[in-house]
What does this fold into?
Amino acid sequence: MADADLEEIRKARLAQLQQQGGAGGAQSASGQDDQQQQEAEARNSILAQILTPEAADRLGRIRLVKESRARDVENRLIALARSGQLQNKVTEVQLKELLGAVAENTREKEGAGAIVISRRKGGWDDDDEDDLEGF
It folds into this structure.
């Protein structure tokens, strides 16, 4: 076989593999995107039902600053709503209280594994420099 024939076979095989692999990968990625989009829509729908407009606005501003904190608060609110513990819409004041609780919780978690650095007392002073002049 000539080099040109081998090159044509390689190109045909590569195109075939790209069609098979590319189509399957695109479908699964598209399915994951659709699923994530549906989950986001469901979360937003639940939050719209349980938050007052002022509270939703505050949560949106928090999301801009710290995504993880907003996600924690959303998860707590959704859990409370699903368990039936929310009788009325959550106001901005109630959201602030919940934020305080979440902040305290995260501080406790971070504080347990915190690294503490203790520095030596004393250190260098002018007299120590005189001791080194002879060296």
